[in-house]
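[AMINO ACID CHAIN]
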Amino acid sequence: MLHYIKRVAYVDTPMIVGNQLTSGRDKDYWEKLTDLLSDDSPHIEVNTSLCKNLSQIMKGESMIEEDAIRQLKLSYRRADGRIFELKDCATGIKSFSVLQLLLKNGFLQKDTLLIIDEPEAHLHPQWIVEYARMIVLLHKEIGVKFFIASHSTDMVSAIRYIAAKEGVQADLNFYLAEDSEETPYEYTYRDLGIDIDPIFKSFNKSGD
């Protein structure tokens, strides 16, 4: 129900996380996402178990610090205590840090919609499954809504079967983008429910 949505964030790439953006030259939603990630004032009680899950995956924790001139910067503290600027970290760490930072500051709530384009693009195959698991758990435990575009069979199947395992399969829906027969360069979206077989058939064309 769209009228339940009060806050929205769009993530098209984790590459911008922690980087200094130039106003007017970068995409508007990059600046908005950077502002959201840099908000260090929690608005609600943080789900500590989900934060801990994310830290276990990353073997560390994302955080907000002040630099030498008291400017806020995003950092990653590894499990051994070493601290790195988040902009210098691997894109997989950045991908999970987006979830952790938005969780810490209370942006991820039951009235939040998080739109993510190809979250698997920079992830190790095992981390694709872990990312899918966090998506499902964020929805199950908090109620966060997700709209995801993916080209990964691992991501699609992981979301499908982890949602079933966690008992939230009824909240899940898949759509398949197909070439529009009426309008070139446009697509129609076929509602598949939870049937992912047509998605796998479309992905298998690359083998041919």
